[in-house]
Structure formats: structure tokens, C-alpha cells
Amino acid sequence: QEYKWSSMREYVGTEIQLVDKDTKEQIMNDFISEADFLNFHDIEDETDYLEITEEVIEEKEKRAKKIIAS
Questions:
Q1: How far, CA to CA in Å, does 68 sit from each of 19, 25, 48?
Q2: Do 8 and 1 meet the contact criterion of CB atoms below 8 Å apart?
Q3: For residue 4, what are the CA distances in angstroms to 1, 25, 30, 44, 56?
Q4: What is the pLDDT of residue 47?
Q5: Which pLDDT score, from 0 to 100, does residue 30 have?
């Protein structure tokens, strides 16, 4: 939400600059509420995409350390 060019603030606010109203309505209809929309975007994606192997290993190590610290 903090990123200047992100449309996230427009989906949970009233200001429209990057997204037209019809698109916002269409997307928000897939969620029960704005809170549901925000919760969906807080879910950590643990999918391994076609990234550089070193980056994948580094990310897995970060996740492991986070779990151990919890």
C-alpha cells in the first residue's frame, strides 16, 4: 500500500487514478470485504517460480529462520 505506483490504495480507498471504477468494482466483487481483500494480499506465497536457484535457496533459508525464531 505504501508503494507510490501500486493500485492497492485505490482498491481499499476512494481515490481513483490508476484503476477505472468498473475494474475496481469487478475485482472487489470477488471479496467479501475490503478486509478480506487485504488479508488475501497478506498471504505469503511460497511457490517456487522460475527464479535463479540461489535466490530460491536464500528465500527458503529466510523462511526457515523465521519459523525457528517464532
A1: 40, 41, 21
A2: yes
A3: 8, 21, 25, 22, 28
A4: 72
A5: 93
| Residue 6: closest CA among 20, 18, 21, 14 | 18
| Residue 61 CA to its chain's centroid (Å) | 21
Residue 26: phi and psi, rounded to 5, are -60, -45
Cell 487485504: give the residue: 38
The CA distance from 70 to 65, in Å, is: 9
Chain segment 13-64, per-residue pLDDT in tens: 777 677 888 988 999 999 999 899 989 888 887 776 666 677 778 888 998 9
Query: What's the whole-model pTM score?
Result: 0.52
**33 burial type by CB count under 10 A (0-12 exposed, 13-18 middle, 19+ buried):** exposed
